[in-house]
């Protein structure tokens, strides 16, 4: 998830297709545009308006919150007639033109949010059609249409396709599917970064391990959206193997993340000339990826680390950061309202218009195997049997009285 991309990094990526990892960013204290009604957050939305709105709505949905109508309307109002979304349109009444830089990440995130909310088949259908139309010949997507494919963009679009009911293996361009594209970013099992994913190959075709790209690509290779739930199957105990299939590449990537988190339970990022700093956003993404891949223990340990300081990071970074933490909690089956001592849902809700409905606890999964329903059933059966026995006893007593002289 790209809440860590600064405005400058996003602009550079749009212009030159930069493959630099995302960096930590704080909200701009002086937005260059007015904050529209219905939008979450108070930071300048120029580079992340649709992204942060989509993540906020998606996270609220996982927590059982029904968002305000105007929050949803703001997002749908950002869509262009051809189905694409830009990062932000200051004047949605103005038709999109060739100068507007639409992008795959904003479009894919909007698809995932609107699909989860339901009732937006027309909007998501147009968006998916547009995403298919700008698929690259290698089966993947770049941030902007026509840009070289990268792991993050390909993964988030794959998640959108799955959320919308598509089968990514059948979304083919040049004989290649999104899964084929993701495999081209997978590192081998030898050398530095064994088993990880790269964001993009460099000019010489070399792949360099990137934790942010790995977290995204693990979800994509598993065919999971941003609001993935924990995989109940145990993680494979086998070591790294040649990434010949998306599933194996995902297992390799999850193992890489697990190893990276083993010591301190968090990932790090560094600005040029600065010491390594904890990367809360990338750690939250890694939690989701690990949970989806069946690495429950590692995901839970990293989540516990996040509970300590990540809420302060989210308070500085805005609604998308709160959303990342909510989605990490959701992936591990943790109540986001009891994230350590923090109610993430309340804080996320407070960054936008008041929701139509706020659940008091996380939605429970429908599971009759061990959720108390069996006890309820037997109590009900026992009560019925008791009533029948009492009725039978009364009937026999009356019959005896009638037979007495």
Count of helical segments?
A: 14
C-alpha Rg (nearest Å): 25 Å
Task: Describe the main β-sheet briefly.
Answer: 2 strands, antiparallel
Spatial gap, N to C terminus: 88 Å
Beta percentage is: under 5%
Indicate the low-confidence ranges by residue numbers. Answer: 2-28, 365-385, 399-405
> What helical percentage do the residues reach?
40-55%
Main structural class: mainly alpha
**For the largest beta sheet, what order do the strands appear in spatially?**
1-2
Q: Strand tally, please? A: 2
- Arithmetic mean of pLDDT: 86
Overall geometry: globular
Order of helices and strands: HHHHHHHHHEEHHHHH
Walk me through the structure.
The protein is mainly α and 405 residues long. It is built from 14 helices and two strands; from the N terminus they run H-H-H-H-H-H-H-H-H-E-E-H-H-H-H-H. It has a two-stranded antiparallel ribbon with strand order 1-2.
């Amino acid at each position: 998830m790209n809440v860590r991309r600064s405005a400058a990094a996003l602009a550079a990526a749009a212009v030159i297709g930069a493959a630099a990892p995302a960096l930590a960013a704080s909200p701009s204290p002086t937005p260059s545009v007015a904050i529209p009604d219905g939008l979450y957050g108070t930071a300048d939305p120029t580079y992340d308006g649709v992204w942060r709105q989509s993540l906020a709505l998606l996270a609220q949905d996982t927590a059982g919150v029904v968002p305000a109508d105007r929050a949803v309307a703001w997002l749908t109002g950002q869509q262009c007639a051809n189905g694409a979304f830009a990062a932000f349109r200051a004047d949605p009444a103005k038709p999109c033109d060739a100068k507007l830089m639409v992008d795959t990440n904003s479009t894919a995130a909007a698809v995932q949010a609107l699909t989860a909310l339901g009732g937006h088949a027309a909007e998501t259908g147009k968006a998916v059609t547009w995403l298919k139309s700008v698929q690259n010949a290698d089966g993947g997507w770049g941030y902007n249409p026509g840009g070289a494919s990268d792991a993050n963009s390909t993964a988030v679009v794959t998640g959108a396709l799955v959320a919308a009911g598509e089968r990514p293996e059948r979304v083919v361009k040049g004989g290649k599917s999104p899964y084929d594209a993701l495999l081209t970013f997978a590192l081998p099992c030898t050398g530095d970064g064994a088993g990880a994913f790269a964001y993009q190959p460099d000019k010489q075709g070399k792949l360099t391990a990137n934790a942010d790209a790995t977290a995204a690509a693990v979800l994509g290779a598993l065919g999971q959206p941003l609001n993935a739930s924990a995989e109940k199957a145990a993680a494979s105990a086998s070591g790294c193997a040649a990434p010949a299939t998306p599933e194996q590449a995902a297992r390799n990537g999850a193992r890489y993340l697990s190893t990276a988190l083993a010591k301190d339970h968090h990932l790090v990022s560094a600005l040029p000339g600065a010491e390594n700093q904890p990367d809360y956003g990338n750690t939250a993404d890694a939690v989701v990826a690990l949970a989806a891949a069946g690495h429950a223990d590692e995901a839970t340990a990293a989540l516990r680390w996040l509970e300590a300081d990540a809420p302060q990071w989210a308070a500085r970074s805005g609604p998308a950061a709160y959303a990342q933490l909510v989605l990490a909690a959701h992936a591990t089956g943790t109540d986001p309202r009891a994230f350590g001592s923090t109610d993430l849902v309340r804080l996320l809700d407070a960054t936008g218009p008041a929701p139509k409905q706020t659940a008091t606890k996380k939605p429970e999964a429908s599971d009759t195997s061990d959720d108390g329903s069996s006890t309820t059933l037997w109590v009900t059966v026992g009560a019925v049997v008791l009533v029948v026995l009492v009725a039978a006893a009364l009937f026999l007593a009356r019959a005896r009285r009638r037979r007495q002289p």
